[in-house]
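G.,

No rush on this.
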Amino acid sequence: MTAVNSVPPARFSARSRLRALQADIMELILERELEAGDPLPTESELSVVLGVGRNTLRESLKALQALGVIEIRHGFGMFVAPSNFDALTDVLTFRGKLSLHHNGQEALELVGVRQALETGLIGASMEQMTPKQLAAVEESVRRMESLAGSGEHFPEADSEFHRRLFEPLNNEFLIRLMAVFWTVYRRIHLELGGSDAAAPLEAAALHRGIYEAVAAADKALAAERLNSHFEGIRGRITRAVSE
């Protein structure tokens, strides 16, 4: 019998009730049109409105805080949390690292999601890119090349390069989501001990190639070179897991 099947039905029922209560609290926030930073009703008020005991309520509130939905400031009260992707980053990092002990499938799938986003949206971003934004992308490449010339790796410049590639879309949620996947891969890479990392000069040249395709307004080539970049990442994970 598996661990999941050994959990008594009562436990499942309790979990279901807590999830339902969390959904009710989020629905209350929406119904009252609260925004990030707005205070929530007190625990006493929520207990009455939702018809639950204080202990049960607190369990759900702690879970919502962990999810980044609310923020509990002891001595001040509870507030709608600002946009925060930390919880998502932590969960995806855990799933990716856990998969490394098996076949690395989830780690590869996470890279695949980022790959699909970037290669699928690069053409639209290029259409909106201004000369100033294009110059900023090249500035990131030059920073990479400078660091690579000293034999240094450049994770910050790499992150900056990919962020600048898609800033023309003016979609803050997308930028943050891409940053989540970048951070998750970075943590997975470090978990592998930086195994089989591309040489700095080689990596800088790869990013230079992506920039040149964008500068030439060649959407197909830009997508192709981004794909090659991510296939290299996938290959490094596959080789590390199989060792």
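When you get to it, here's the other one too:
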Amino acid sequence: MNHLVDIVKAGTLAPLKDAKPPRAVMVSVIMVVYQTGPALRESLDLVLADPMVDEFIVVDNGSPPEDALHLRDLALAEPCLRLLQGHGNVGFAQGANLGAEAARGRALVFLNPDAYLQPGCISALILASEGQSSPCIVGARVLNADGSEQRGSRRGEVTPVSTFLSLSHLAQQVPSLSQFEIHRQDEPVPLTPIAVPTISGACFFISRFDFQVMGGFDQAYFLHVEDIDLCWRARRQGGSVIFQPLANVIHLGSTSKTNPVLVEFWKGLGLARYFRKRADNIWQWLTAVLMAPAIVCIAVLRPAFRRH
């Protein structure tokens, strides 16, 4: 059997001296890890047990010593697992791009480290991409641990106004504003794949060709919003964003040891940047700039609201 452990240092891939050339692969799963917590090991095991996975690339942006050692042991024991370590916390977007650059599969599946891949998920994602306009992104149906669909699994158009009204919950509480609600998890589950403006970055498929054509994730996003940006760019280029209701993944969420306020701060900054980036005229740009402080503040306050 072949196996390869890659260590990323100073942006380069350095295979171990005893490594042999890996077999040709079709599906590469890419997982960016950072202070994930106890969910990591089960998530790793489920990917390794999935028969659709030909190659599993784990990009370790920073793990506790015991998790880092476990990852190295797995990489030595599992022929399909390739571990990228030693580059520090470069953020999710850059880490995911590192994983994609190392991938050999024609199909890329990005998966969060606190997400549990369910049987048939990958094949359903790939099936939904057939016949779709390129570049094509296919998102899974993201579930809570109790089986209910998670907020953010499928989303509408993300604009400054819809984001402000959704984050503040005004779109849910005021009937006349309901059309501005971004999240669609309360709508009936479609029977077949459907086009949506935005899917969740917790688990999605894109071909390696399309990902390369798009230039990968925008690395100016450190954490969060890079998935929203990717969906927007795909649609802007005439491509398709598809929600596949038959591809299930259980996403625990909030398992990271990182301070949730800091996580939400990065999300707020990402949203502010995204709205400036997608502004088509001076008025949209001014709206994005003026609403940025409010969006960042609401995002940062969200952890406090969740505790009550």
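Residues 6-150+185-253 form a domain with the Spore Coat Polysaccharide Biosynthesis Protein SpsA; Chain A fold (CATH 3.90.550.10). Residues 9 and 87 are 5 Å apart (CA to CA).

Enjoy the weekend,
O.
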